Structure formats: C-alpha cells, structure tokens
Amino acid sequence: MSTDEELHRHAAGNLARADALVLGRVTYEMMEAAWGPPARTGVRPDWMEPFARTIHAAKKYVVSNTLDRVDWNAELVRGDHLGKAVQQLQRESGEGLFVGGAKLPLVLAELGLIDEYEFVVQPRLAGHGPTLFAGLSKRIDLKLVSRLEFGSGAVAMRYEPRR
Fold first, then answer.
1. Of 17, 21, 41, 152, which residue is most buried, by most CB within 10 angstroms?
2. What is the model's pTM?
3. Domain that holds residue 106
4. Shortest CA distance to 11 belongs to which of 58, 44, 77?
5. CATH number for the domain that contains residue 146
6. Which stretches does DSSP call E strand in the chain?
7. What is the C-alpha to C-alpha distance for residues 35 and 43, in angstroms, rounded to an integer?
8. pLDDT per position as a tens digit, 112-163
9. Which burial class, exposed, middle or buried, applies to 73 when counting CB atoms under 10 A from its CB (0-12, 13-18, 19+)?
10. Average pLDDT over residues 81-92
11. Distances from the Cα of 20 to the Cαs of 15, 38, 57, 76, 94, in angstroms?
12. CA 71 from centre of chain
C-alpha cells in the first residue's frame, strides 16, 4: 500500500469522525505495534503525526476469542457476542463506528450491520494478500455515494447497501 500525506489525512479524518473503532485481533495488534506507544521524535515524518494522534486517542473495541486483555484505550469483545455488541455500540454511537480488519467486515456484512463501505483502490497489483468478503453467503448490492481521487492515483469510493 502506498503511504503518503494525502492518504494519511484522509484516514485520520475518517477515524476522527468515528465514535469508536471496531478492530479484529490481527488488525488491532498490527496497528498497536505501529501506532500505539508514542514514537520518538523524528521516527516518522511529521505529516504522519495527525493520524498517529487520532488513532492513539480513539476508543477501540477489539473482537477476539483468543486475547485475554487489551490495552491502548481498548475493550475486548468476544466474537460469539459480536452481533449484539455491535448493535449496542451502534445505538450508543452518534457519528458511527469505523471497522478495520480483513475478516471482521465479512462477519458484520453477513449480519447486515454495515451501513457504509469505503474501499481505497491503490495503483498497484500485488497478486497476493487477503481477499475481502471471501465466502460471503449472499450478494450485497451497493450504491456509490462518493468518490475521491488522490494525487498518488489511489481512489477512495464510498458505498451504501441498497435496501
């Protein structure tokens, strides 16, 4: 994935609008390792700092059946209680929840708990990596609600499920 200032600003804006983040275990561990503890000055470019501050401060819910505890402003949600927990968080939420992970969005899509999808298409062919929504049991038709092109060639597209 290309990393540049414009994409980081966009991601920080998305996170800042969310009331909380709902992350799968692997994504949580990866993000905590990269962004959790405050980095020494000069370790990353200055333009990454707004994203770092935003994700560090965000309330997080981590979906896992294997972790015993979480840190980094996070609470643990057991996978077998995911649907009820997310429905409760949605009721409490003002602006909404931001979901991150490779497997978690599939489960939430199956439960009909995703109100908006954002896909950022990068101008790079990788030939490997996770396939989002692999194994989805039913087709979900989407309606494009916005499109944003970045100088890097990446394109962020937001969709809502057609009801």
1. 21
2. 0.87
3. 5-161
4. 58
5. 3.40.430.10
6. 20-24, 60-63, 74-77, 97-100, 117-121, 142-149, 155-161
7. 11
8. 999 999 999 999 988 888 888 999 999 999 999 999 999 999 999 999 999 8
9. middle
10. 90
11. 8, 20, 10, 13, 10
12. 18
